[in-house]
Amino acid sequence: THRLDGIEEDRSSLQRTLQLCSRIIQPPARELRHQITTPSEQSTMATMTASDKSIGELNREWFDSMAGSAYKADWVRDLLQQISSFLRDNVEWIGQPNGAGLKVLDYACGGGIVSMALAPFASVLRGIDISGGMVEQYNDTARRLGLSPEQMHGVRGDLLNDAEAVDGPELTGFHVAVMSMALHHVADPAGMVKKLADRLATGGSLVIVDWVEHGRTPPGMPVHPASHTITRHGFREDEMRTMFAEAGLSDYGYLLHPQRSRMPSGGEQQLFFARGRVPVQTGQL
């Protein structure tokens, strides 16, 4: 009875919900924050540019400018489907409370792909994104799904640099927090993991979705126009394990997507899903 309105527990209703999600989404640029900035493309690997703008400011400006765009390429759709289906199929591994539905934080939410994937298992979905334009996309998705602001709503915010601006009971005490394909866009990945962990309830789970670390752009390859918005070419498993431990998370888990992701250049990259939980004795009540 605590599920989202219109989402029943039976299999047929769940299937209808997922079909509705797939029909309405035309993934905006932010939805593929690093999918669009393909993994083999060159990064500035810096947090400041000659204009003295922070990496956060650069990301906000770039994805605000791209918020109205939709990406219809087959490889983009395939990648979104990989992430969405993996999250749905592994919801018990992610973390599902007994009885009531999940309270989910979708950080760097874009148009809400993560939220839609977990909607059948959630009672509350909250999105935060550094780009106001992308927050508009997220809230538009909620409206098109027929969900009220109490059920699904996004706000603009930056946990790493201005966490106080997105504080309060509505944005804390989450059962699950997910950051999908965006950790490589922040200046301090370990600090971001800690900030996200701080938003979890007792036993709550943090899930990071990203690329396995890979090489830089081969000589002669073109530089993508969004390359100035990223700081990393993916992460190693031991890096993720260390970041989760330093954030006070336990029960670490690490899964690779069973299929590699094809890139528009013809190459392939590997998605990972890292999970950690807040120990019961240190979490929020």
From TrEMBL:
It holds the Pfam family Methyltransf_23. Keywords: Methyltransferase, Transferase. One of its GO terms (molecular function) is methyltransferase activity. InterPro entries: SAM-dependent_MTases_sf. It comes from the Eukaryota. The lineage of its organism: Eukaryota, Fungi, Dikarya, Ascomycota, Pezizomycotina. CDD domains: AdoMet_MTases (cd02440). One of its GO terms (biological process) is methylation. The keyword Methyltransferase applies. This is Methyltransferase. It comes from Tolypocladium paradoxum. The keyword Transferase applies. SUPFAM superfamilies: S-adenosyl-L-methionine-dependent methyltransferases (SSF53335). PANTHER family: TRANS-ACONITATE 2-METHYLTRANSFERASE-RELATED (PTHR43861).
